[in-house]
């Protein structure tokens, strides 16, 4: 009898440990207020050696610009925040620039500066639970894609003849890809997805091993259940390829070959799934989210040439 009690106690203790670890994984992954330093520190080697001087200058430049603040309500009642940097001369082109994991629109200085200097209007949303936007849990691109539909409608309220380009990196890249799977207005003419992941399940499974040293089972399964209950979506359903199979939006896919945060192999999986006109660009030796810094001429030359076909 005593042995049976001990066995039950040990099993309950193990279950509690598994549940607590899964809870920590879930919170670090998507809870807005949970510290993310462990994730960034584990993956900081991915950008080691990249000269980020210009990126920092671009971020400072963006902060100094006359940004107009806009807000909308999400499909589930959150107040979403965004900034508009209007073109110097009137333009019908609007570039929506989506930031990465746990970031905000002001982080996207390099993209904002390039498109502003091209003469386009630039729209910089803070994705849900990031920056000034409301929300307790990040949407990891899946819920953000639904939010993009609201922002697209908002832009069209301002300019019914707008030509809209969607672009973003990392989680922002996933947001762009997932958005293109919806029935978008013809005003959305093109997309550029930089280093976006295939699915939230795939990406978190990789980070689970790297950051916590834990296997997929049972931790991802328990964390996914928590996500469904608290965040309103499943890591499994949040799939870029599944959305891209329905896409009609011409898309340029970009990825650095040295990216291990969102592994380079995901480029081909996303590219192959896309049903729309598409191109892909690999930046040799670039880590996560720094392709534009490693090879700026190739990056922006390719992006501009791609967009010229649709603007």
Give an overview in words.
The structure is a single chain. Helix 1 packs across helix 8 (219-231). This protein has a single domain (31-199, 238-308), classed as 3-Layer(aba) Sandwich (Rossmann fold), CATH 3.40.50. It is built from 12 helices and 8 strands. The model has no long low-confidence stretch (mean pLDDT 96). 47% of the residues are buried. 44% of the residues lie in helices and 16% in strands. By secondary structure, it is an alpha/beta fold.
Q: Compute the number of strand runs.
A: 8
Cα separation of the termini: 77 Å
Overall form: globular
Classification by helices and strands: alpha/beta
Query: What is the N-to-C succession of helices and strands?
Result: HHHEEEHEHEHEHHHEHEHH
Strand line-up across the major sheet: 1-2-4-3-5-6-7-8
CATH top level class name = Alpha Beta
- State the helix count: 12
| Percent range of helical residues | 40-55%
Largest sheet: 8 strands, mixed
Strand-residue proportion: 15-25%
Average pLDDT for all residues = 96
CATH-defined superfamily: Alpha/Beta hydrolase fold, catalytic domain
Question: Can you name the CATH architecture?
Answer: 3-Layer(aba) Sandwich
CATH topology: Rossmann fold
Low-pLDDT sequence parts? none
Gyration radius from CA atoms, angstroms: 20 Å
Number of domains: 1
Which short descriptors sum up this protein?
44% helix; 8 strands; alpha/beta; 311 residues; eight-stranded mixed β-sheet; globular; Rossmann fold
Summarize it.
By secondary structure, this protein is α/β, with parallel strands linked by helices. The protein contains 12 helices and 8 strands.
